[in-house]
Amino acid sequence: MSVQQEAEVVGEALEVWIDQDLCTGDGICVQYAPEVFELDIDGLAYVKSPQDELLQAKGATTPVPLPLLTDVIDSAKECPGECIHVRRVSDSAEVYGPDAG
What we know:
alpha+beta, three-stranded antiparallel beta sheet, globular
């Protein structure tokens, strides 16, 4: 099943957040999805709002744009710090990332 098909099966809006306590600052997420992730001056990755604002509050989430779903999921899979969490908006269940069931 492709990622696109998985997203359709999930059928839910998704959001992503980063646990900065685990972030290693490798920037792999920024390489995959610079529209969603950004490294701050502290060397850690953060998510960005749809208006391109850096969201620095602990646990801040941002919607996963459907065209970038594959890139965001690849970021979660490739992250050496295992700090990227993708979850359903409706029930906050993690669907990709270290806590995905």
